[in-house]
Amino acid sequence: MVLEVTNTNNVKVYTVSGSSLTRKLPDWLVKRKRRELQKDVEWTRRIELIQDFGFPEASLRLKVTPDGQFCMATGVYKPQIRVFDFANVAMKFDRHTDAENVNFCVLSDDWTKSMHLQNDRSIEFHNEGQMHFRTRIPRFGRDLAYHSSSCDVLVGGASSEVFRVNIDQGRFMTPLQTQSEGVNVVRVSQAHELFAFGTQDGTVEFWDPRARNRIGVLEPEIAGIVDPINGTRGGFEISAMDFRNDGLGVAVGTSSGHVLLYDLRQSRPWQTKDQQYGLPIKTVKWMEQAQGAYSPEVDSAKIMSADARIIKLWSVSTGKVFTSIEPTNDINDVCHMPNSGLLFVAGESAEIQSYFIPQLGPAPAWAHFLENLTEEMEQKPQQTIYDDYKFVVRRELESLGLSHLIGSPVLKPYMHGFFVDLRLYERAKAIANPFAYDDYRMQRVQDKLQEARESRIRATTKLPKVNRSLAMRLMQMQKGEKGRAPDSDSDDEQKRLGGRQRRKAQVQAATATAVLEDSRFKDIFNNPDFEVDEDADEFKQLHTPFKKMKLQGAKARADDDSSEDDMGIRDAVDVDESDTEFFA
Fold first, then answer.
1. Side-chain half-sphere exposure of 315, counting CA atoms within 13 A
2. 3-state SS track over 206-219
3. 99 - beta bridge partners?
4. CA-based nearest residue to 279, from 309, 235, 248, 324
5. Which SS3 state, helix, strand or coil, does residue 500 take?
6. Bond prior to 77 in cis (omega within 30° of 0)
7. CB–CB of 553/570 below 8 Å?
């Protein structure tokens, strides 16, 4: 069993549900490996917080019921509703719908009563057995909320009106007329039952449910963001909002990626946070201090803000980031398990991600085992799921004679190449080059002979078998022999050299030492593919003294009393002072 862990700002975040396997591999490979993974001991012993905690393609919304015993989620494909039982850590049931879900509300303490806003302008009411009732609204909805005192369902959408459906009387009530052309967010405070409507004009309207009148308008301002048409305040929409339990605080998320914290008694925010991605805020939540968690701050509450890329938890009082989570897939919704350090993330992946943050709060009672599965399980296993396949590019397919298989199920396109079965690849390679094994065997024999020769005692400097001339010239430069002329007095020559020549020789010696001793250049002297063809015309044109240098080298080798070992060169080649520029 393993747990993936990240450590941001010294806060450990454990991934306790939702493996990275289905997010990184193609779908065809995942489905084919299902049966084989059942025999894998490491896979069978993995941690699965809740059985079948996910959807076939993606999850859209999820919420924990008020009693904290169930989790209701919606997803695709096909559009469906799933309820998960925490007591049995398994899925309780799933129910298919006719359209995708936009948002939903749980009406009872458990999962038995809920209402769902669908993307086909319909509102569905579900009970424990089936869909109880369905009605349609005049415009496409974007968000909904429930006012328990009046039994009104508030629906905001692509209209200036907020529609009211009274489920006690079973009819539409007079809608609430706003000052905006669209309402993106609808919220009801649990403390004083104040209505808040976040509009597409970037304002927040507050309504009194008793008088059904507007009592105030909040106009957030963000520095550097203005309306591109008239240059005034605006240029963003309200995309998320949440009331604090004390009835005074409200968090507002914008489409520009900013979160602003307000006190209802003031018109200016006391805290502004930028997500740094410029994406609309999808979820913003007040997170009060859980029992058992310690915080040195006076106001220990935190804000959880999430866009499509990242989830950030930061302090209400200071704005300092507590920790952050970056899933590999886009985020659709985030839900916090009350009074715990457990987070559920719905996103564009088959599995619903679960993260446990011990410093945020303890594990819930139904998952108390998470407290012990932390430090000793911080491991990152190596993924070996690609062992049975070979990744090849189009050029390699043509050399193997498999280019005619492009477009067939045998080749699986991936990135800039294809995945091909390893057995087919090896068979095609053997047919394309039948003498590959013989060449490999001869090369191994030559390598063994070279190793045996190198073990002999040598009295001279050994040169590599690849680019020997280059290595010899670099060794001469390293020893400072580059500036010397043959048959000349060394002391007199050093006296004639000026400071400029000496400095140049030192720089060349340092460069030669770096090339010879740096491991990044070892393939130049070991791999035959990097052999420099000194007989080529291009090489002779670039190095004009090459012919003279080659004659001097041949003369030096003729005077050398060497054995049959072709790797030893006894003496260094003398270089004329006129050839100095050749080694530069």
1. 12
2. EEECCCCEEEEEEC
3. none
4. 309
5. helix
6. yes
7. no
**What pLDDT, on a 0 to 100 scale, did the predictor assign at position 138?**
92
Q: What is the residue-wise DSSP string for 444-490?
A: HHHHHHHHHHHTS--SS-B--SSSHHHHHHHHHHHHT-TT--TTS-H
Q: What is the DSSP letter of 398?
A: H
Measure the CA–CA gap between 526 and 519, rounded to whole angstroms: 11
Burial class (CB in 10 A: 0-12, 13-18, 19+), 504: middle
Task: Give the position of tokens 């004083």.
Answer: 192
Q: Is the pTM of this model over 0.90?
A: no
Q: Which of 269, 271, 272 is nearest to 257 (CA)?
A: 272
Tell me: cis bond preceding 78? Omega within 30 of 0 counts: yes
Token pair for 68: 């904290």
CA distance 535 to 52: 68
Longest dimension (CA), the chain: 115
Which one, of 332, 435, 354, 323, lies nearest residue 75 by Cα?
332
User: Do 400 and 428 meet the contact criterion of CB atoms below 8 Å apart?
Assistant: yes
| Residue 78 near residue 55, CB atoms below 8 Å | no
Please list the rounded mean pLDDT of every run of 10 residues in the chain (584 residues): 74 76 50 64 68 90 93 93 92 93 93 94 92 92 93 93 92 92 93 92 92 90 68 77 91 93 90 89 87 56 92 90 90 92 91 89 87 62 58 88 84 85 85 79 86 68 77 79 46 58 78 80 81 80 60 52 43 39 39
